[in-house]
């Protein structure tokens, strides 16, 4: 006896619908696994915040990026979310990427930590550093930003940002100790000869915002053979220009080079 055609169709439709549900659930589960939580940092206690603020960093699935070499999949894009409570929307003032004109999307979280520009007895700042994928020539965009908590509005405010995108020993540094403690110093390659660096110093003002106090063209040159980082090499120059050091006084020495030489206002490691 042949089965009824309508019954067969109903059975086939049921099997197809069940398979579709399984495939959909499997795809959603796979997406959940691939888009993983990179970091979850509780901020309320450290900042004495009125709300239960958290920094949640997620990373998307691996991507295929054209970099000039067949290196396989690259890490997925990084997303930063600053929110008052679980389920709240992300604060639009925080993002992992600089503006599109500066650089591409960030795929690495290099730093996410608290810094204390005025010591542990004063409020901290949230320091974040993200980076793009490296190009075939080694160039990589880096985005550094600092956030202060504002009790009156129960919000976080960006108080410093710096974007650099070269492969020429550039650096952005938070100074943790010494006469420049709490300052942000950047060394960014110049665009023309003589090829050196624009050295910029920003210091925290009374409103807990960073203000630029110094910018000059470095004595250090690109690929000059000096083993010191640009900022370490330029430290006597920086401090002298800010009235914090005079020739003849004890030099500001890098910890990993106790006996450097001062040549044309720049330190060289022997």
General description of the model:
The chain has 270 residues and is α+β, with helices and mostly antiparallel strands. It is 17% helix and 31% strand. The termini are far apart. Residues 1-33 have low confidence and may be disordered. It has 2 domains: 36-167; 168-270, no CATH class. Strand 12 and strand 13 form a beta hairpin.
Share of β-strand residues:
25-35%
Instruction: Strand order, main sheet: write it out.
Output: 4-5-6-7
Main sheet summary: 4 strands, antiparallel
Uncertain segments of ≥5 residues (pLDDT<50)? 1-33
Distance between the termini: 98 Å
Structural class: alpha+beta
String of helices and strands: HEHEEEEEEEEEEHHEE
Shape, please?
globular
**What is the total number of structural domains?**
2
Strand tally, please? 13
Percent of residues in helices comes to 10-25%
Tell me, rounded to a whole number, the average pLDDT: 83
Radius of gyration: 26 Å
């Amino acid at each position: 006896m042949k089965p009824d055609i309508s019954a067969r169709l109903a059975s086939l439709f049921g099997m197809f619908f069940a398979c579709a549900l399984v495939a959909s659930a499997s795809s959603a589960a796979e997406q959940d696994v691939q888009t993983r939580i990179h970091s979850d940092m509780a901020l309320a206690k450290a900042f004495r915040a009125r709300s239960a603020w958290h920094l949640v960093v997620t990373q998307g699935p691996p991507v295929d990026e054209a970099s000039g070499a067949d290196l396989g999949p690259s890490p997925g894009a990084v997303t930063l979310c600053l929110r008052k409570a679980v389920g709240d929307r992300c604060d639009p003032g925080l993002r992992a990427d600089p503006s599109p004109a500066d650089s591409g999307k960030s795929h690495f979280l290099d730093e996410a930590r608290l810094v204390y520009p005025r010591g542990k007895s004063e409020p901290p700042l949230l320091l974040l550093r993200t980076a793009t994928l490296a190009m075939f020539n080694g160039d990589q965009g880096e985005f550094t930003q600092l956030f202060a908590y504002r009790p009156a509005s129960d919000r976080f405010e960006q108080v410093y940002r710096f974007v650099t995108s070269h492969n020429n020993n550039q650096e952005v540094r938070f100074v943790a100790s010494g006469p420049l403690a709490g300052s942000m110093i950047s060394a960014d390659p110049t665009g023309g000869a003589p090829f050196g660096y624009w050295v910029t110093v920003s210091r925290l003002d009374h409103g807990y915002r960073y203000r630029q106090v110094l910018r000059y063209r470095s004595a250090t040159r690109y690929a000059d053979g000096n083993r010191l980082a640009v900022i370490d090499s330029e430290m006597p120059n920086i401090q002298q220009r800010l009235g914090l050091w005079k020739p003849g006084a004890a030099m500001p020495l890098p910890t990993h080079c106790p006996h450097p030489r001062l040549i044309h206002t720049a330190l060289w490691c022997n």
